[in-house]
Amino acid sequence: MQSFDGWMKATQGEMELALVQHLPPVALTPARLHEAMHYAVLDGGKRVRPLLVYAAGALFDADAAELARAAAAVEMIHAYSLVHDDMPCMDDDALRRGKPTVHVKYDEACALLVGDALQSQAFDVLADGGIDPVRQLAMVRLLAKASGSLGMCGGQAIDLASVGLNLSLEELEQMHRLKTGALLRVSVLLGALAGKSLSAEETQALDSYAAAIGLAFQVVDDVLDATADSATLGKTAGKDAADNKPTYVSILGLEQSRTLAEKLRNDAHRALEQFGEKARRLRELADLIVQRKA
Amino acid sequence: MQSFDGWMKATQGEMELALVQHLPPVALTPARLHEAMHYAVLDGGKRVRPLLVYAAGALFDADAAELARAAAAVEMIHAYSLVHDDMPCMDDDALRRGKPTVHVKYDEACALLVGDALQSQAFDVLADGGIDPVRQLAMVRLLAKASGSLGMCGGQAIDLASVGLNLSLEELEQMHRLKTGALLRVSVLLGALAGKSLSAEETQALDSYAAAIGLAFQVVDDVLDATADSATLGKTAGKDAADNKPTYVSILGLEQSRTLAEKLRNDAHRALEQFGEKARRLRELADLIVQRKA
């Protein structure tokens, strides 16, 4: 069997091709907008969400083209949220993945439209799949809910409102469950659904896995923000503390945050027990999320 | 048969209920975001796009709940585009429908998230319909294409790039075909598709109708921007000239613009001939679009 690293690199390569294929060509009018959409999406990041889609797709031997489609849709939503998040009226960040952010490289109006158009494109791509149409519609609804005011956008709203407040651990968890957790969860579900309809038991197991890695992802993010440097992260480090944002590190401290991440990794592994060897990549991704250095 | 005015008022009333029903309740967390989403969508505008959905639905006796769903989805896309368009980095407008714009009433970050979340909500609502799932997926794809970089967002990008340029009449038409035309067209198509699958001939006739009213809508908008006052329009009048934006009036002059609007109204009527009496509301809407005073 392929090593995890080999699988990850191969999947990231496939993903880059799928994203190019599912974005409008730069040659089409308006060319500058399309160029900026490519800039925002391509050649960036670890592709954690696409990796989750593919890893969950392996559970039920999902078709590769359908996985590429679902993964591209989720990654476009993620990319649009970063573009809007970086804008001056939100986090006002000039650096992302080691490159100038979209509103710096282009301009603010362009960044606004890039995000808006990427969201539309994500739904266009996902709704164009070749699987059972009832299941495909369910996938569109899941992605829409994960993206909207009861998912990612809602989490960002809570995050903005929380600056300078003393959030409890529960409030912090709820914010992250929406802000980053919803999209990680839908990545797992879309990958599995690309393979087959899910039983209630399967959905519950995948939800438990996704909840655990979603929180772990954020805990580790907070630890890295507090301990790594900007060059390693490819974005401005120490920003949370500077912005007076509540984090796991500010509430629990560094050591307890690390212990929590380790506990969540074990929770994720346990949730996958019923899937046996086919859950190998999902298990390895949980390990990656907790052990990453950037 | 109900008068046009009676039908319009009844449909607008139905629409208001449908929008409330299809938006997340304000009581849900994050309440401020949900309140701002309601503020952006409810109690505003002539609801031209929903009226087109319902009028096209009458062609094939579409189910009322399905029409409400499609109309709500299109109107949420329209409302989100207005919220983002009004932001300082775009048109920087403080007044919309006679009320403070969302970023003025709330703040810029909130306006950004309101628009983003409304777009997700639109796709959630449309993907949740009760008609044939293959047709429903086609409707989702149509709305996504009409909203994205080859539709509305693309038109806005061309519009932004055109400030201060001497556009030809063809270039101006292409910009408006995307910026406002794409969403008007999809309103007509979604209404018809809520009733049944369309033959190529039916699609072509509805496309011709939509193209004509789409351009007419913009020509009349330009005429009103040049001739009406802000109180009548419920938004800042004379803005195009002040921003040095190319318009039909700046290229054709006032009288030729009015003649063009009248010609487009006749084109719209002619495109509907095959549908007979069932196209009555679509014909009346073409008249309304050309004859409106605000």
Automatic annotation (TrEMBL), chains A, B:
Swiss-Prot/TrEMBL keywords: Isoprene biosynthesis, Magnesium, Metal-binding, Transferase
Gene Ontology cellular component terms for the protein in this record: cytoplasm
CDD domains with a match to the protein in the record: Trans_IPPS_HT (cd00685)
Source superkingdom: Bacteria
An example Gene Ontology biological process: terpenoid biosynthetic process
EC number: 2.5.1.10
Top-level taxonomy: Bacteria, Pseudomonadati, Pseudomonadota, Betaproteobacteria, Burkholderiales
UniProt-listed SUPFAM superfamilies: Terpenoid synthases (SSF48576)
MF terms in GO: (2E,6E)-farnesyl diphosphate synthase activity; metal ion binding
Organism from which the protein derives: Herminiimonas arsenicoxydans
InterPro entries: Isoprenoid_synthase_dom_sf, Polyprenyl_synt, Polyprenyl_synt_CS, Prenyl_diphosphate_synthase
Cofactor(s) the protein needs: Mg(2+)
UniProt family annotation: Belongs to the FPP/GGPP synthase family.
Protein name: Geranyltranstransferase (Farnesyl-diphosphate synthase) (FPP synthase)
UniProt enzyme class: transferase
